[in-house]
Amino acid sequence: MAFYETVISQESGWGWEVPVNVPESIREVVASLYQMKRNILHSVAGLPEDQVWSRIGPDVSAIGNLLMHVRGSEHQWIGHKIGHRPLKRDRNQEFAQRGGISLKTLIEDLGRVDRDTREILGELSEETIKGFRSADGCSIPFILHYTNHHLAVHLGQIIAVREFLRPGYRLYGSPEPAAQP
């Protein structure tokens, strides 16, 4: 648990303050994006390793798959589309994986993509934001809103799987419901 607490509370790396060099026009959506990532980390903190790859149904992704998927998506949408980083992603493998990657490694992979995202967003100017279109025609605000929404959807899935695996689990430590007679 100490590893996750360190990652969640660090002021560098996965810090949550929007860097001052992020342009004003995107600061709010970037703050929300960082909050979604923080919530994802909170939702997997303390997750037993045997539950990282547990599937609660044949068509339900494991938490490990969802972590791989949000990492790949953020890299594609921000790293590749905005930052022009080479696209390194196998979306099918994100969902086909059946284990073999520790939670610590999955979180470290998320951290590497987060560092790229921070670097890319910190290098933007208002002029760049206004004139930017990705190869497929997306604006930077659209990409950031899409990525934020995507993270929120998968955060909900992660929480639902955790609740199924450990009834009474709550993201923010609210009291577990009393046992029903």
Structural commentary:
By secondary structure, the chain is mainly α. The chain has one domain (26-165): Four Helix Bundle (Hemerythrin (Met), subunit A) (Up-down Bundle), CATH 1.20.120.450. It is 59% helix and 0% strand. The protein has eight helices and no strands. It has helices at 2-9, 27-44, 49-52, 63-80, 91-96, 103-122, 126-131, 140-165. Helix 1 (2-9) packs antiparallel against helix 2 (27-44) and helix 4 (63-80) runs antiparallel to helix 8. It starts with a helix and ends in a 16-residue tail after the last helix. 25% of the residues are buried. The model is unreliable at 175-181 (pLDDT under 50).
At the first level of CATH, the class is: Mainly Alpha
Number of domains: 1
Low-pLDDT stretches: 175-181
User: What separation lies between the terminal Cα atoms?
Assistant: 33 Å
Series of secondary-structure elements, N-terminal to C-terminal? HHHHHHHH
